[in-house]
Design a protein that fits this description.
By secondary structure, the protein is an alpha+beta fold. It has 4 helices and 4 strands, in the order ββααββαα. The model has no long low-confidence stretch (mean pLDDT about 95).
Amino acid sequence: MRKCYRCGKSKKLIEYPKQSNAKQGRSTVCKACKVEKMQIRLFGMTTKDALKITKVCHICNIKLSNTIVCIDHDHKTGQVRGILCTGCNTAIGKLGDSISGLKRAVNYLKKPPLI
């Protein structure tokens, strides 16, 4: 167990990002706090702020929690588009954050090549 330098909560060592030059090989700030800091810097909001906007994913309507919320943004403009679950955010990212990528996936599902 280690106490996070930022939030003050005691957490398991695995909840801290690896850091080769650190004493125990892990950061003194937990992963959750690092994510929060990045969200504030990039989007001007925290996970709590995002959950005030919506309690469900803007794509699949799954109930969001502190661990499965993503602030989705346009990678070209940096503008926030919506609040998504981790799964939906990953999915649209893997499809290139593009309508053409989504259309290819829809076409595949409509007519799978091996059926």
